[in-house]
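User: Could you write out the 3D structure of this protein bound to uridine-diphosphate-N-acetylglucosamine? I've included everything you need below.
Assistant: Certainly. Input first, then the structure.
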Amino acid sequence: MTLITIILAAGKGTRMCSQSPKVLHSIGGKSLLRHVYDLSTKLENNTIHVVIGHGAQQVKSSLSTLSIHWVEQTQQLGTGHAVQQVGGAIGEDATVLILYGDVPLLQESTLHRLLSNVNEKTLSLLTVNLKNSTGYGRIVRNENNEVLRIVEEKDANDIEKTIKEANTGILAVQGRALKKWLTQLNNNNAQGEYYLTDIIALAVADGFHIATCFPESEDEVLGVNDKLQLAHLERVYQLQQARQLMQRGVTLRDPARFDVRGTILEIGQDVEIDINVILEGNTKIGNNVKIGANTSIKNAIIGDNVEILSNCVIDNAVIGQNSRIGPFARLRPESVLSNDTHIGNFVEIKKSHIGQGSKVNHLSYIGDALVGCQVNIGAGTITCNYDGVNKSQTIIEDGAFIGSNTQLVAPVTVGENATIGAGSTITKDTPARQLTLSRAKQVSVINWQRPIKKEKL
Ligand code: UD1
Ligand code: CA
């Protein structure tokens, strides 16, 4: 079966009150349109057409790497008009699937059920029974329960308005018939639009059967029209992600306070995730990893037995096995920590390699540095990597001990097993196995007295 998927995405989305086109708003870090596109790519033998209008250029460039046939609808004259724009590209023998760019959580299984009903004489329609169907097109059936037509809210009479079965807008039908009905649409209705929904009555007139099926849950067919609906579907999506992880054995302290904005490529056994953790981009997490509360992790690889304490921000970093990070640590891009490292509170690491067993436990900035194994970096150590123009590297060789409150002015190398006295400003390479320090000698002033408060005049 050849499939043509038409994703309607030309609408303005006025109620989003936003400069950006509606379908570029995101759920789980992924645009609404991308959700629909990704779902479509799961269907075999499929060509994907996306109808764009408002913000067309923006929509196109944001998804420019994808395999999409873009179709511009310069004036939004209705859903039927939108599908007409694809016109010539619709193959007679193809099955055409209509999806909406602003309905992001549709499931693949639902689409398979929908598509399995299509044949030479059957149009397949996804409908949903709603407690409150206000705003939706209603499914009008005859006394034999056969679908006759769809009536839009604004065209419906009082009796039709009581119908609970609503049109989701999602349907599938053979190309040949669809092309014929598209030429028969008119805009003689309350909104002066070319309604795609009018093809139902045309199909019935041509002796077609209208097969209907339901989604597994209502959330699957909910569209996003405003920020409230966007937030609702974000929660639905996040709960789905959380459930999947828990089914794979991950302990989530609270599935309602956990967010995935990207893809978890791997996650091991006995992983524990505390509240308010955000996983962004592509992450790999090993076995036995503990992630503390309020931590964001983006594009990171985390080894087995790593413990990340609360309030850390980790971005494009690699953390070796058995390491302990935080609380309140920040790993910036290109930070690579070997196994058994400790990065403590109020420490920032940027574009640095930290060797096995090394510790940076308190209040330090390590940037553009190559730190060897078993190095101890004391509290308040700063790599002065930037002279205002260029960045330079600091090399700290294996076994070095950097005393507290040391400034290492790069480019500079601290030799193997060297010790740097606390409070030093190191501007030249320091020899291995020696103590180097650069602080003024301590003096004590005998007979010195504290000032005494003067009498007021
Ligand atoms: C449509 C259906 C209605 C259904 C509802 C489900 C019609 C006439 N009505 O109504 O039966 O219950 O969806 O949500 O089809 N779009 C375009 N070009 C246009 C008009 C719309 O691309 O000229 C796109 C929109 O961007 C959106 C989708 O089509 O993604 C639906 O359009 P919308 O205006 O929301 O349709 P409704 O009036 O809600
Ligand atoms: Ca709508």
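The chain has a mean pLDDT of 97.
User: Perfect, thank you.
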